[in-house]
Design brief:
Layout (H helix, E strand, L loop, with lengths): L15 H23 L3 H28 L5 H23 L5 H7 L1 H40 L7
This protein binds fe (ii) ion.
Length: 157
């Protein structure tokens, strides 16, 4: 079990907003795991889980908006994977809410999903997406600069 979740350079997608959100995600998970292990109050952990669920929705929509904007061909499958992850987080929240297991066990049961699964998702799925997006952004930039040049609006060197 990975009790420390940390963003590392090899997870870099080179898209600023996505990397920032991934960093925040790992911070949140780290705190959630640490407070669960410490046996923090249920109200504290419950709040963290709620914030996490909301954050996951925000983060996935950031990625999905970008994929839509640039007509990413693997949008559907990427979105499906996001949906499954979100459902799992919701399941965790319910399990926690209904107190079917001690708090610690609920979180630890989801340790693999929250840390390993998410890390692999960045490495394998998000990186492919960001490679595509970066190429499209580059094309967009060079198109814009050609147009600007055409109209005499380009930067003069
Ligand atoms: Fe993703």
């Amino acid at each position: 079990m990975a009790f420390e979740s940390k963003w590392t350079e090899d997870l870099k997608t080179n898209i600023g907003i996505i990397d920032e959100q991934h960093k925040v995600y790992f911070k949140m998970i780290n705190e959630l795991l640490a407070s669960s292990l410490k046996g923090e109050a249920r109200s504290v952990i419950g709040k963290s889980i709620k914030i996490l669920s909301e954050y996951v929705i925000t983060h996935f929509s950031t990625e999905e908006r970008m994929m839509t904007k640039y007509h990413y061909p693997k949008y559907d499958s990427h979105r499906t994977v996001h949906r499954h992850f979100r459902q799992e987080v919701e399941r965790m929240a319910l399990l926690f809410r209904d107190n079917l297991d001690p708090t610690k066990n609920v979180i630890l049961k989801y340790d693999y999903l929250l840390v390993t699964w998410f890390t692999n998702h960045i490495k394998e799925v998000d990186k492919k997406m960001s490679k595509f997006l970066l190429e499209k952004m580059e094309e967009e930039k060079s198109f814009t600069s050609r147009i600007k040049k055409f109209f005499g609006l380009g930067k003069k060197r």
